Amino acid sequence: MYREKLDIMENNNYLETSIQYMKGVGPAKSDLLNKMGIYKIKDLIEYYPRSYEDRTKLYKINQFVPGEYALFMARVNADVHLQRIRKNLTISTTFANDETQNCKITFFNQTYVKDRIKKGAAYLFYGKVSIDRGIYNVENPIIYNISELEKVQGIYPIYTLTSGITQNYLFKLMTSAYDTKFLVPEIFSVEFRKKYNLCEINYAMQNIHFPKDFRMVDIARNRIIFEELYMLQLALMSLKNSSLSEKKVNKFEDVELSPFLELLPFKLTNAQTNVVEEIRQDLISDKIMNRLVQGDVGSGKTMVAACAIYMAVKNGYQAALMAPTTILANQHYGELSCYFEKLGIKSEIITSSTTKKNKEKIVERLKNKEIDVIIGTHSLIEDNIEFSNLGLVITDEQHRFGVKQRLKLSSKGKTVDTLVMTATPIPRTLAIMLYGDLDLSIIDELPPGRTPIKTFAVNDSYNTRVNEFIKKQIKEGRQVYVVCPLVEDSEKSDLKSVEQLYDRYKNEIFGEFEVEFLHGKMKNKEKDEIMNRFKDNKINILISTTVIEVGISVGNATIMVIEDADRFGLAALHQLRGRVGRGSYESYCILKSNNKSEKSRERLKIMEKSNSGFEIAQRDLEIRGPGDFFGIRQSGLPEFKLANLLKDINILKNAQEAAKKTIENDKYLEAPENQVLKRALFDKFGEQLKSIGT
Predict the structure, then answer these.
(1) How much is the pLDDT for 1?
(2) 3-state secondary structure of 90
(3) Best CA proximity match to 217, nearest among 226, 227, 228, 206
(4) Nearest CA to 386 among 401, 404, 368, 399?
């Protein structure tokens, strides 16, 4: 099935064809394929198998192994018997034999098999084997005609599907595409492929979908994963390279920080001091700062940011701090403005709650340099926001913003220094590779006095004890967060919803206390009012969705109850837990879940045992995989089609080394041999790479 070389332009036209126009697709199937991210033929051939079935061996019935799949040839020796068990369940059974033994064949909700297979005829079957009272049973096998043996026998790809698309349909579609003998442009030279032990791209694409053995699968996967990771690293290095090569216009002198530090009611930790020093060195150097500050919940990232802002303002520049929510922006403004005011530094805030009239006044003052520091949400990247002399941009909770948003804010000044902060801990090696366009600083120490939060994983049988404990804490003057995954009741789910829980807490369990609820569908003004009432201790119990994951700091809140905790990732649970334990009182996190699966219990046990965000992040990676963990789509980077940042760490290291050498040898990819590579890079990362030319 291998292809002769065709004209590249013709192939590109074919690969860019809408999937709707492929034979056997049409509008209805096209909509279903679109749900899977398949819009054109190029997307189809890059829709890689998630696993493979080994159908290389043709089994005899007496060779069956219970619990494993088997491909076998057998003759049907009984009529199909159909039973209607209940409204939505039918069971069809028959028997088949070969020269070695007899076996039972069972189909669930497949009434058509009564017409598909006939007594006395021989077929190929592929299915999972079980054993029932000494007789082998094969459930829901795929049925083939004997003549299809050559086509069926081999390594069979298994794809992730959506309702209405079957494995067989997708496999036939893939075969149809490959029958056209298209050619994918090769971006690597022969020498490059030899150096990194990579096969040619068309060989890889062929063998990822139609391998003859598992060795071919490994060779194909290695090439495709290497290319995915190499392209990502090349893009990130190109971004970083462009900022390094750009001459820094803004000049910073060293600044004595003691006037600011003396105002603080605490001393910076050693970790904070080290990161502030790294930022200082960046600011006074000739290179543009692009630094990621990673720190666990409560590690003091805001004060590190404040030090950077102080240095920028004292050098005559304006600074901007962008937060993902109005609540967090208000918290930063409230915390920092009181210090800045004492130092003669003028600060302001812009959010979606700011009135039009007020916003116009603030924008005018920004342009006239009457404001030194602006704190806000996405509102800061609006086109009408202009600065007189922007020198420093800080984005908080980087995973909530895309790369483009960060760049847009930075573009409002000349050679602006950028500081990015995140409380989502990522293991250091992976952070360096994922955020390749940023230098990395880690605050790996909590301020003194922050005691670990006691965490307990329980089920509904503990409800009475939990409720009594909550009442005791409230009577002692403390406050409680309750988080659940849904906003409204749903007939399709038994998960607890905000509104259902509020009704029960308010009217049945905690009628003597002030209970309120909060969710993302509310207007910002309403959310802010509720959060401020909670902060002022006018609300005892606040029921919410994860909208409070990144929220206001309430030192009096000592209990975090998370309903259906198994529905959240470990990183999210850790973030939510970080909402309590911010004052001087002992604090608790109660993870409620009725999920009995071993995996679910294991995850919640990790939360009970560890308060370290970095340790939890590593375990989250191992359990959930990096796709969910990193939220790559949110960060502005493409989702990997095949690569797994945890399992493919060695390929990632090789890809990073190769990308580094490519950039060192040809900074702007101008060499003739790199033109196909440059086009492919811009196809994938066009928006982010405008800064390195076209």
Answers:
(1) 32
(2) strand
(3) 206
(4) 368
In the chain the first and final C-alpha atoms are separated, in Å, by: 36
Give tens-digit pLDDT for 166-219.
888 999 999 999 988 888 889 999 999 999 999 999 999 999 999 988 999 999
Residue among 145, 58, 135 nearest 101 (CA): 135
Overall CATH class of domain 258-443:
alpha beta
Same fold, 57-152 and 454-610: no
Q: 454-610 adopts what CATH topology? A: Rossmann fold (3.40.50)
| CA–CA distance, 202 with 200 (Å, rounded to integer) | 6
Cα–Cα distance measured from residue 143 to residue 72, given in angstroms and rounded to the nearest whole number: 10
Bridge-partner residues for 124, per DSSP? 73, 144
Q: How far apart are CA 443 and CA 206, in angstroms?
A: 46
Round to whole Å and give the CA distance between 326 and 332.
Answer: 10
- Specify the 3-state DSSP secondary structure of 504: helix
User: CB 62: neighbour CB atoms within 10 A?
Assistant: 11
Those residues whose C-beta lies under 8 Å from the C-beta of residue 273, and which sit 6 or more positions away, are none
How far apart are the C-alpha atoms of 124 and 112, rounded to whole Å? Answer: 17
Segment 358-375 shows an average pLDDT of 93
Angle formed by the axes of helices 598-609 and 570-577, to 10°?
40
Q: How many Cβ atoms are within 10 Å of 634's Cβ, its own excluded?
A: 12
Q: Where are the domains of the chain?
A: 57-152, 258-443, 454-610
Between CA 95 and CA 80 the distance in angstroms is: 8
Cα–chain center distance at 439: 21
Tell me how far apart the alpha carbons of residues 283 and 287 are, in angstroms, rounded to a whole number: 8
Run of H or E residues at 85 = strand 81-86
369-395 pLDDT, tens digit per residue, is 999 999 998 888 888 888 999 999 998
| Region 664-671 average pLDDT | 86
CA angle 451, 456, 458 (to 5 degrees): 165
Residues 6 or more apart from 183 whose CB is under 8 A from it? 3, 5, 6, 8, 11, 202
Query: What CA–CA distance (Å, rounded) separates 398 from 636?
Result: 11
Residue 605 C-alpha from the chain's centroid: 22
Structural contact between residues 603 and 583, judged by C-beta atoms closer than 8 angstroms = no
Q: Which CATH superfamily hosts domain 57-152? A: Nucleic acid-binding proteins (2.40.50.140)
For residue 572, give Cα distances in angstroms to 330, 460, 610.
22, 22, 14
User: Distance between CA 629 and CA 644 in Å, rounded?
Assistant: 11
